[in-house]
Design a protein that fits this description.
The chain is mostly helical and about 130 residues long. About 70% of the residues lie in helices and about 0% in strands. α4 runs antiparallel to α5. It starts with a helix and ends with a helix.
Length: about 130
């Protein structure tokens, strides 16, 4: 398990691609369940319960469809593992900035300047996640 986490961290650092992640349907299922659990928890806490459906459609539906269209069905398990595993890592990394910014969401007054560091961290993580 530790080796897989290391490989997923290398995927997040753009040092590996999905093809370098081991073929493991069990690990893929575990990563998907972990990601959906994180999405459910943050969605309920943050007031966005529709995140699960979006995650499932984008991650599983679109990825599977695109790989099938390219004739790369054999890469589905590895790609889903890389995407779900990276999603778990980024979701965990995004929790501290999101929790730090939570008191300022939906408030009419502007946040204090001390909130700029968590906001910057959240922005950098978001852009990096898009890059991965």
């Amino acid at each position: 398990m530790g080796a897989l986490v290391g490989q997923l961290l290398e995927v997040c650092a753009l040092r590996r691609g999905p093809q370098d992640v081991p073929y493991s349907p069990q690990a893929t299922t575990t990563a998907l369940v972990a990601l959906l659990a994180l999405q459910a928890g943050t969605g309920l806490y943050g007031g966005a319960p529709g995140r699960l459906a979006v995650t499932l459609i984008l991650l599983v539906g679109v990825t599977t469809t695109l790989l099938r269209a390219r004739g790369a069905d054999n890469r589905t398990v590895q790609t889903l593992l890389a995407q779900a595993g990276a999603g778990v890592i980024f979701s965990l990394a995004m929790l501290p900035p999101a929790l730090a910014l939570q008191p300022y969401v939906g408030v009419d007054t502007p946040p204090p300047t001390t909130a700029m560091l968590p906001a910057l961290a959240a922005l950098v993580l978001f852009v990096w996640k898009l890059r991965v």
